[in-house]
Every structure is written in C-alpha cells, then in structure tokens.
Amino acid sequence: MKTFVTSALFAACLSLCLSPDSAHARGTGSPDDAKASVNSATQPEGDAKASMETMQIPSHGSLMNALVYVAAGAGPHPAVILLHGFPGNERNLDLAQDMRRAGWDVLYFNYRGSWGTPGTFSFSHGIEDVAAAIAYLRQPANAKRLRLDPSRIVLVGHSMGGFMAVHGTASDPAIKGMAMISGADLAGELAQLQSHGSKEDAIKAMGTSLADEGMAPLSGCTPNGLAQEVSDHASAWRFGAKAAAIKDRPVLVMTSDDGLAPVDDAFASALRQAGDTRVTTLHLATDHAYSDQRTELSHALLQWLETVK
Questions:
Q1: What is the CA radius of gyration of the chain?
Q2: Poorest-pLDDT segment among 2-16, 60-74, 201-215
Q3: How far apart (Å, rounded) are the C-alpha atoms in residues 109 and 1?
Q4: Which residues pair with 155 in a beta bridge?
Q5: For residue range 149-170, what is the model confidence (pLDDT) as tens digits?
Q6: What pLDDT does residue 309 have?
Q7: Is residue 18 part of a domain?
Q8: Mean pLDDT, residues 104-131
Q9: Which CATH number fits the domain that encloses residue 164?
C-alpha cells in the first residue's frame, strides 16, 4: 500500500513544527525566568548545543573524510548515517540539517576514493565503508562524544546510497531501519540491460551510463571496471536477494520520475511478500535529485523517522 504526503498532512506537520511545544519555543517571562523554564532538550547550554563535528573514519587502511551534525540536547540521540550517491553531486545535506533539528545526529562521509577521501573507489569498498561508519558510531567513546545512542542507528541513502543502505541493513541486524531515496539496484539495472543484448553489451552500456554521471570525484576506478564489478556480483547484489534479511524492520522507499521507480517498487513488494508489515512507499513527481520537491521530501522522511524512534 503506497503512502502519499498530502497537502493536509503537510500543513499538519508544519503546524506541529510551529506549535508552542516545538524546539523553537521560548519563555515569555523575564530572561532569567525564561532560561530557568525552558527544558535543556529544547534550549541547551554549553556542550549540549547543536554542533558540527569533523573526523576521519578508518576503513581498511584509509581514513574517510566525515562529519556529524550533532543534535541539540544532552541525548543520547538516535543517529542517521546519510549515504550519498554516484558520484555524490547531490549530498542531501539540507536533509541532514532538518533531521538534526528533529533530534537526530546525522553522519555524512565520503567513501574511499571519493571526493578527496584516500583509497580506491568501488562498490564493494562502499559496502565495506558503510560497515566501518556504523562501527565508528558504536565505539563507546565516539557515541559519548557525539551524544548518540549506538543502539538506534538508521541508514538513509540516495541513489547508489540506497544500494549501500540496502546492503548495510541486510548485513547488520542491529540497524533499526532504512530509507532509500530513488535507490539504485545496480545488479537489477544490469539485468535489465542484459535482457536487450549480450552480457558484454550490458556491461558496456552500464559503463557508458556511469561515465555520463561523472567520474572526476572518484579515484582508482573506471566506468567499465565498475560495471564489470556489478556483473561479478550480479546475483548477490540484487535488492530482492536482501529482502529476507531486512523484513523485520521498517523501510521507506521513495521514488521519483527518474526511471528507477519500477525496480524500487518491486523491492517494496518483495519486502512485503517476505513478511515486512512496515514498508512505506512514496512517489514524488520530480527528477532524480528531487530538485523541486525538497521540502516535501524532507517532511516525508521526518514523518517516517518518527515511527522508527
């Protein structure tokens, strides 16, 4: 069953965000009275203020450039790991700011070999890098410093980041849930290409498509080499192959008019068929970057995250 964000729901969410009980509420008495009356979770002082922390996360011999949007309040806060796509031109950091305002810590990082992070970029390395990022947040010292709850981690990924979110969630039963925004089922896309010709032609076509996305921010890889990697892992990397491992957790599948909706809808159906009763789907009539639907995208994501807490 598809779930759509209606204009009425949008208005209700906006009204809630602007209510006197919201995080932006302020006292009405004297400055001293106001300071005493406002809960520290809504108007924190000192180390409990919202902040941004930068770090490098170790992953298989490389240090990944990363940052965390730390939510206001003593916490511990639930955490989102925000996974960017290929090559990562749309980073969705507006969503990170919105999630932080809603009380979530948000970790953003660049995979090995991407956007200045040392190492070689590959899809396999990206899967390993997600696991490394999860492990970093779970280290007690890091969780304490970032005021986050390591038992409440959610993966949110856009495009190739959706692919990473599927694999990260499937391989880690402790992940609380996952959301994908126009998730790219790389193996599924290759299979579609192969249905129109030979395996070699499909690999070449996928390589051309990857090259068109832009390879400049990536190092140590070629378009055809990445396409061959997908071919080598075709059966294991299909979204449908991960449904059984994810079926006990909430999943949000968001699609647009970028051509990926049929594959993502099929994944949502596979999850439901596997027994997942907490699958939410949303389609927005926009492009792959959700360029003119950012507010709607954010509100849908925040609404879903409230059900995961």
A1: 20
A2: 2-16
A3: 33
A4: 81, 178
A5: 999 999 999 999 999 999 999 9
A6: 73
A7: no
A8: 98
A9: 3.40.50.1820
What is the pTM for the complete model shown? 0.84
Distance CA 160, CA 184 (A): 5
Contacts of 4 (CB under 8 A, 6+ apart): 282, 283
Closest CA to 82 of 59, 102, 100, 58: 100
Measured in whole angstroms, how far is the alpha carbon of residue 272 from the centre of its chain? 21
Q: What is the DSSP letter of 168?
A: H
Q: State the Cα angle at 94 between 178 and 126, rounded to 5°.
A: 45
Where helices occur in the chain by DSSP H, the ranges are 7-17, 31-37, 93-101, 123-138, 140-145, 160-171, 186-194, 199-213, 223-232, 234-237, 243-246, 261-273, 294-308
Whole-number average pLDDT of the chain? 88
Structural domain for 180, as ranges: 48-185+238-308
Phi, psi angle pair for 259, to nearest 5°: 95, -5
- Higher pLDDT residue, 25 or 295? 295
**Rounded to whole angstroms, how far apart are CA atoms 165 and 177?**
9
Looking at the structure of the chain, the number of domains it has is 1
Kindly report, residue by residue over 231-270, the tens digit of the pLDDT: 999 999 999 999 999 999 999 999 999 999 999 999 999 9
